Amino acid sequence: MLDIKILRNNPEIVKESLIKRNDKFDLDAFLALDNIWRNKLSELETLSARQNILAQETQLLIKDKKDPKSKIEESKQLKSQLAELEKDFAQLDIDYKAKLDWLPNIVHSSVPVGDESKNELVSQYGEKPDFKFKAKDHVTLAEELNMVDFKAGTKLTGTNFVTYTGDGATLERALINFMLDLHIKEHGYREVSVPFLVNSKTMRATGQLPKLKDDMYNMSDDDFYLIPTAEVPVTNLKRDVLLDESELPIYNVCATPCFRREAGSYGKDTKGLMRLHQFDKVELVKFVKPGTSYDELEQLLENACKVLELLKLPYRVVALASGDLSFAAAKCYDIEVYSPGIDKWLEVSSCSNFEDFQARRGNIKYKDSKTGKREFVHTLNGSGLALPRLFTAILENYQQEDGGVVIPEVLRGYFCGHERFSR
């Protein structure tokens, strides 16, 4: 949610951001509604104040043994007016807040302008492998090594669900433990474990609702949603909480499954592990003071990249253009790992600064130790990392001519020192 003062006093900033995003939100119509909303609220407050004055005047007349009839009659008429006005305002307020929920975050000035084609390469690490044989894709490798049963996932649930088996299941678990250990021991994050089901208020606070409702799995009978990412419950741990300045910054890490309908993915690459409806992910979430959030974003990016460096996988960092940003993000970096079997760069993390957008929706504040004022925190999050495409990259980058796959050195402790996946 945006600061309403910016909308009212500097609407040109918001309009410029909407143009950069190519977002069709009708700001002029909303500002007209805002004017009506403010006028109705002012009228309501004026009548309420008059009612309080009448009550006081009536009591004084009674105390002075004077006839309060005229005041009582006016108060009755006013009460009827107030009841009608409160009813009208309540509906107006619902409509007003519903429209405000569709207004995306303001794009940071450093973000490149344009659609996905304007994304900018920031850095690149490592060299693409130079195989002396024809590289296989991860689907072939996973099936030959009995690491993933694609048919079983479809049988149990449906398309784009998979079952990890044997070394595949162990690799998935090893990667989760490796990443959690790294972020906790080396990067200073505190682990949390959260529910995989959340309510609509929780989904709204981080910006998933109402914008992304079609991509969520919803159990309407209970008002529950399966989480699309740990960002949602972990950020909401601080919803409606007033933090002490001394508590900041807060770094949390959490491993959860993620559930996404991928409603808009028709026609996109869905082969193998590319686009699953359920997948595991290690998520990094930060709560920080506003003046530090962009330094914190760079550090968050470094923390996520460290995973790929330790696994010795080639990757690149891309700054997303304004038209490719998520609804809630002010700035975002994507981390893409290279997969030689399909010759593609695969997104394994998005590291975002939401500034105070989520904090306003979730009422997450801290008390400034110097001024005593209550200020909104800035929230950030990034995958550290997502499992399926990381799994894919390991199989494809570490494959051998004989069909085996070398286990990355940092993971061998999880496999009793074994160095290879073999048939």
Brief rundown of the structure:
With 423 residues, this protein is an alpha+beta fold.
Outline the structure in words.
With 423 residues, the protein is α+β, with helices and mostly antiparallel strands. The protein has 2 domains: 75 residues, Serine-tRNA synthetase, tRNA binding domain (Helix Hairpins); 306 residues, Bira Bifunctional Protein, Domain 2 (BirA Bifunctional Protein, domain 2). It has an 8-stranded mixed beta sheet with strand order 1-11-12-13-16-10-9-4. The chain has a 3-stranded antiparallel beta sheet with strand order 5-7-6. Strands 8-14-15 form a 3-stranded mixed beta sheet, with no helix packed on it. The longest helix has 37 residues. It is elongated, with a radius of gyration of 27 Å. It starts with a helix and ends with a strand. The relative contact order is 0.14.
